Amino acid sequence: MPNLSDVTGRRILYGGDYNPEQWPEETWPEDIRLMKAAGVNSATLGVFSWSRLEPRPGVHDFAWLDRLMDLLHEAGIGVVLATPTASPPPWLGHLHPDTLPRDADGRTEWWGGRQHFSHSSTVYRRHAAAITEALAARYASHPALTLWHINNEYCTYDHGDEAATRFRRWLQDRYGTLDALNTAWGTAFWSQGYGDWAEVAPPRHAHYLRNPSQVLDFRRFTSDMLLECYTAERDIVRRHTPHIPVTTNFMPLWSGQDAWRWAEEEDVVSVDLYPDPRDPFGAQEGALVQDLTRSQARGPWMLMEQAAGAVNWRGVNHPKPRGLNRLWSLQAVARGADAVCYFQWRQSWQGAEKFHSGMVGHAGEHGRTHQEVVQLGADLARLGPHVAGGTVGAEIAVLHDWHAWWAADQEARPSTRVDHADVLRAWHRALWQGGLTTDFAHPEDDLTPYGVVVVPQLYALTDAAVDNLLAHVRGGGTLVCGFLTGVADMDDRIRPGGMDARLRELFGIRTLHEWWPLDADESADCDGFRGTLWSEEIEPDGTASETIPYQGGELDGLPAVLRKGSAWYLSTLPEPDALRDLLARVAADAGARPVLDALPADVEAVRRGDLLFLLHHGRDPVTVDVPGTHRELLTDTVVTDRVTLGRYGVAVLRDPEPAS
Amino acid sequence: MPNLSDVTGRRILYGGDYNPEQWPEETWPEDIRLMKAAGVNSATLGVFSWSRLEPRPGVHDFAWLDRLMDLLHEAGIGVVLATPTASPPPWLGHLHPDTLPRDADGRTEWWGGRQHFSHSSTVYRRHAAAITEALAARYASHPALTLWHINNEYCTYDHGDEAATRFRRWLQDRYGTLDALNTAWGTAFWSQGYGDWAEVAPPRHAHYLRNPSQVLDFRRFTSDMLLECYTAERDIVRRHTPHIPVTTNFMPLWSGQDAWRWAEEEDVVSVDLYPDPRDPFGAQEGALVQDLTRSQARGPWMLMEQAAGAVNWRGVNHPKPRGLNRLWSLQAVARGADAVCYFQWRQSWQGAEKFHSGMVGHAGEHGRTHQEVVQLGADLARLGPHVAGGTVGAEIAVLHDWHAWWAADQEARPSTRVDHADVLRAWHRALWQGGLTTDFAHPEDDLTPYGVVVVPQLYALTDAAVDNLLAHVRGGGTLVCGFLTGVADMDDRIRPGGMDARLRELFGIRTLHEWWPLDADESADCDGFRGTLWSEEIEPDGTASETIPYQGGELDGLPAVLRKGSAWYLSTLPEPDALRDLLARVAADAGARPVLDALPADVEAVRRGDLLFLLHHGRDPVTVDVPGTHRELLTDTVVTDRVTLGRYGVAVLRDPEPAS
Amino acid sequence: MPNLSDVTGRRILYGGDYNPEQWPEETWPEDIRLMKAAGVNSATLGVFSWSRLEPRPGVHDFAWLDRLMDLLHEAGIGVVLATPTASPPPWLGHLHPDTLPRDADGRTEWWGGRQHFSHSSTVYRRHAAAITEALAARYASHPALTLWHINNEYCTYDHGDEAATRFRRWLQDRYGTLDALNTAWGTAFWSQGYGDWAEVAPPRHAHYLRNPSQVLDFRRFTSDMLLECYTAERDIVRRHTPHIPVTTNFMPLWSGQDAWRWAEEEDVVSVDLYPDPRDPFGAQEGALVQDLTRSQARGPWMLMEQAAGAVNWRGVNHPKPRGLNRLWSLQAVARGADAVCYFQWRQSWQGAEKFHSGMVGHAGEHGRTHQEVVQLGADLARLGPHVAGGTVGAEIAVLHDWHAWWAADQEARPSTRVDHADVLRAWHRALWQGGLTTDFAHPEDDLTPYGVVVVPQLYALTDAAVDNLLAHVRGGGTLVCGFLTGVADMDDRIRPGGMDARLRELFGIRTLHEWWPLDADESADCDGFRGTLWSEEIEPDGTASETIPYQGGELDGLPAVLRKGSAWYLSTLPEPDALRDLLARVAADAGARPVLDALPADVEAVRRGDLLFLLHHGRDPVTVDVPGTHRELLTDTVVTDRVTLGRYGVAVLRDPEPAS
């Protein structure tokens, strides 16, 4: 299979979405000139061009795209060519209203925005296949073509009638019989027993709580339908260009796609990444998404979209302060990206995203943002030969699974304050703050590469996943596990005892009496720290090697944290510093060391290949101890024993051979 | 008519909803074993079993229920048998979409949850009657059958077309002519004059405010339609088993049912009660609902549902701390309950309520929650012979009326901060804190049993109700009346002067100039206390015996509180301590004494029959003075002059003959 | 054309909406008696009387209205006669469901409230024309008729199918070709190119952001459709009574109507005004609306609706404290009103607005509110001959444009905290607090009457408007301009450079690098004050005469405020005192003086004709220096050099000839 290195070679891809049909054609040569000056080597075309490419059903206009492809090729800029199927032309919805999605309330999602397509619509799929076929046929041998980009940010739900039909078919495939479905969904409760497949429907608006297993399966179904849309288009382009890799861009940590499953169907894993420039944890959010994407890619990955400055969809949209775009871009490279791209090259002057920044903003060529884009282009060109293709090593794996998330994130649960993604963020941030590099893994993945496995929260686990965790500990590995893990099976059926019995035994828990979720004004004092969000009334079985008790309150004296050998269980969420320190200690005990010791606060250190990236997320200069002599690649200077980083400063050191 | 004592005898019923069809049949003997060990003597079957009992239209499967009834009977456990009509099987909505309710926005409420039935659907009613008929015929003579439980928590609205048809018919019955309807609804305003019955519809989504009298009648209609559903099923079961009492379970203080009217149609009044274990006023909420339910029952009543631990529908669902389940259960007994039951026996492992606790929780037999259930079973068994059938006396009546609530709780009113139920809570809580036992009564009820009548707020009053209040005062009774009382008639037509003239005369009010509702950041200083929520610009007529003035602000010097003889009017809501003290003084003046004097804070005292219940709602031990010698029934010990209550402690004293 | 002075003569109109069909006819003589006693000389009839006037389609009942017209005429009270078309009878929606509007979600807006008419419905328009025709024919020569009031508070949107048809037709008129529409809407983005007019629709619910130019045009269309409804009825009444002026009442600062355009079609400009009595800036809100309405009227205007006391549609509805109704009414007169009217004469006793106060409230004749109404009637009668027809002069113009507002107020913009109306309020309030009287003007209006032009924010400007601003400055005028001005053209297309180039040149801005919107917890320190809401990264071109820099933060040293000659640009919103002082300084430099110097806080001074109004918005007495000798008209006394104003006090001084 082709892959990202076929595209990048020893370069870092640099560029972004390019939608020049928004401007008069006279603008295009100006774009090319600026791209070349900025070191741009990649442009993504056609993401939202369907109505331009097929203005009437079956009538194509490729001439403008021909000219663009040629123009870019002449300029030495490769093209990521998108199928335009994320936004059908108005004629499709008008001629075929059934191609429009319906939400759970029955509201139609009209055209006039984007993504107004039902993943389940046969008519939509046929038209999407046709435009994909035409596009692939036309550009299969165009020399500018480097990568296929299918659709864009797959993210739609549909509760309409055609979706209902496909949902039934999907359920028939999954369960075979209605009896099996009734068992899996627990329909004996609330008189929901289905006697005919025709009765089964998406979880539409209801008087009161909807069946959670039905909701869970509907999420699986949605991910699968979107994946069918993707693979159908992928297979078409692959038939025309077996040598050209294919991707579709994920939304970071979006709950709608089982990204582990999707990544298997991609040649290149790519992601869109938009931390809030004003979020004090923006860098950590980035690191999380980057680690997750790298783990999905199992190697270098593509940052498909980021913003050079502000986005337009938050309540208050802050620009990126001087240096931040460069810092966060190099952070992505440090964590495995071989492509740094943006939405979009030139900021729109009309339409719904005209306040979303571009590599060329409204301020134009002389705008600060563009000037920084130019500088970054030079940096990436310098780094490319050293870094492209390089791998990032990690001794720690964080487990994540979309199915567990879908099962946990439902109506009527113990605490709506427990947000699966936020718990993940809290744990990954603690590891980041401890200077520990982490991979992500699926709970059934091979865990032998990792000395330490961390489970922030996996509400639902398969038996195989439980086996996997047990084998990891039995094999000498360390496991740290947060609350609400192993509670349910994959049908969302509570395990006897409220938590998998083998896990309880693993941690030394006799009885999990009650969950004590904590409200916003509550916390749980523990010996040495405060717990937040959650606590538990646990009766230990006496086999634990170590416990940290709750202090005061209803749980006084009961274990907040249990360790039994190398297996840890945390029944609360320690406040950030405490979680960081605990994980640092656990990692150290397991021999997993920070990238650098004694890093100043705000400095992130990552090793990629034989390079050491130092990324400074603060504004005041700091000095970092890096014993030995190194070459700093961005400045092409030699540094000895220490390096000083200015505001948002980055150093990329060619590492001497590790001492150990 | 049969009643609750036919079921209880000299026992307290103890048990809960039992939905064993959720588990493999092997679980059932285990359930029986645990029930017996816990002293359970009642199980409610079939609440949500329709799709199991009638898997296809007209096809019945009773065999499993036969086995369960037999099993329970053999174990000596009585069965409360429910008609399963609160959750129709999927086939009903699928075959007959018109049986599904529509909300005011036109959204369908689909199956997949529960209560997805239109109360107005003739097809639904026909199917509900058929399954009720089949159930009643089959189990009429089963020896386990003790009580019929019709449907569950009736609570649905429907704005659809069949509801519109029935609404018109209901209005025709009520008004006879369109002229009368137009007059009652004040349709001369905003050009709403109806010229044809076909034009009249439920109050659906509108551009701006909807007609409040229409909304009021729609609420009456809804209560009546639900009641028709109830009585239709009741009449069926009664025909088969005239000797078996019938109930349906109320939701506490839910606004949708005129519970005074409903209670008349029940043999047993039952209620569901779920105070938040973390609510500092949870016990007072319980006391209110218990007093209200007892008053509706005019005698012993049934606590049909409570939670052994946490519920699942709040944002954060706290479990019950050790002892609280027992405390609140015994509080219900103290206030007249002869049945203490739960939703549900065994906590679900699947479905929408799997995080709602059970008498046997996920932690199982050895879980703390179940252990406390066992202990409570023993306590109830001990108390039963002494308490069952006993009555609770009260010298004070709090007046409440759903129609007044419905009229007050509308769009576009003086203050959305004035919540009818919260005002009721504030007044009842003040009486509770004063140690005063209260009944509830309807404003037209005979008030002669009560020395003191309290009206927290009755925005709308009939002329007969005004007569009743006047007669009460004329007869030497004391009346304490809160603001926004007697403002409107039962069509929601404002009384001349903004408040009934005879009430104004009763309290010594010449002119009610303006309402001054108070915002969240406002209060009204009065002589001796602060008023909250509301204030009024009143011109007294000089006949008051006593006034407490506002101090400062626009109302400086005007009366906040007026007393004329034994009639009190409060134009503001005094802060809690002030309201407690004021009501205590008024009660004392009227000769209504607290159950015990000088009770420690947090201790509740209630007399039932010849028993004195002392309930300690705090966690630190307290000592209560109880002069004389008593037998404490829970411990079977003798106590003299004082009794010490530990955390959440309860004492039930056999009272020596009252001194007076 | 007839105008307001034809109605008023040398009186101030005083009265209000009169809907006596709500009460038995016996009430009417009582109403007349009270009106006369209160000095009421105008009554508005028929605003919501359609179902009474036409109880069945085509069947009219005018007899009751005949009697009312006669009764009022006999009492010497003129009638403002309304077409009743704001609230169609139930039969219209019932017979013609297509006359009901649909919101963007597809929800029908049913009858039972008001304004349940689709502006686009041909059937509605036909019925509205018919009742208007019948009404006009009947009362054309009635001597009580003084003014026509068309419909009421036009404010409806419709996204239904007939609206879609008219929208397409409106767009065809505007753009001629689909190409032109595609260009104007920027449909090249997100694949929205329309290939057939039939595909174009209102901006209905969409998966993600809707096209902002489509939304903008839909707002224009909505204003135009409503205007068509208005002019159609106006033309009918005008045909019958060419001598009787016509109005429709605006909602103050409501965004739905282009009131500049509408005012051109009215003989009398009228407005409804409901500041919150508890809002500390209620008086400033009033002043803003009054200045805006006066500017639309280009002379005296009509206060069509205000409340004598509380309204009913806020969360908490406060009454007006003693004196406030008089104060705010006289403020309107000071700022140009020749009519002071209310909704409504007698407070409803039924229906959706029964808690909205009336000139005769629920407390009746002896209620405080009515007593104050009587006093105000006497005051107005006293002032009428001196003030009616008088003009208010202003040297400062504030520019406002609904199209700019519509373009700015969209989804996905830089900051949802920037509310166009609130920015306008902040600037007008600063001018008010500086004692500066202002007119409002459209950006393309002749600005030569004004020494100072203030642009709080005009996100979109036409080229002609930019020319106008430039010409103003070139002609020696002063311009003060807030941020987010001149950003877009009238299609909502961003101007090159992110702000009109000629404006940038005017202010000395080379590059507008980035917007830095400020979050609720942010501010921007500047030299001498704090900026709020917004800040900008500006590179000046070195031509500015004066700058005020940002201090600290990312923008340290960059200009917050630029002045180049007499053109000022503010890239942030200074906190209130700073904005007041800055504008006062700018005005003073331009020779625009406050009405009076050294006014006490809370005292407003306005000159109208040769009268000086002093309005005291505080509760503690203050003394105002007014050098010279004046006659105070309300008390008919002579005051020399100073006048003392009590709580909410007003003095109206006949001004000696101005010294300058």
Automatic annotation (TrEMBL), chains A, B, C:
Task: Specify the enzyme's EC class, one word.
Answer: hydrolase
Its EC number is 3.2.1.23
GO terms for molecular function, please? beta-galactosidase activity
Q: Where is the Beta-galactosidase trimerisation domain?
A: 394-591
Entry annotated with the keyword Hydrolase: yes
Fetch the SUPFAM superfamilies from UniProt.
(Trans)glycosidases, Class I glutamine amidotransferase-like
Q: Cite the Glycoside hydrolase family 42 N-terminal domain residue spans from the record.
A: 17-382
All residue ranges annotated as the Beta-galactosidase C-terminal domain in the record? 602-654
What InterPro entries does its record include? Beta_galactosidase_C (IPR013739), Beta_galactosidase_Trimer (IPR013738), Class_I_gatase-like (IPR029062), GH (IPR017853), Glyco_hydro_42 (IPR003476), Glyco_hydro_42_N (IPR013529), Glyco_hydro_b (IPR013780)
Q: Which reaction does it catalyse?
A: Hydrolysis of terminal non-reducing beta-D-galactose residues in beta-D-galactosides
Instruction: Keywords in alphabetical order, please.
Output: Glycosidase, Hydrolase
Q: Which family does it belong to?
A: Belongs to the glycosyl hydrolase 42 family.
Query: What is the name attached to this protein's record?
Result: Beta-galactosidase
Species of origin reads Streptomyces tendae
Q: What is the lineage of its organism?
A: Bacteria, Bacillati, Actinomycetota, Actinomycetes, Kitasatosporales
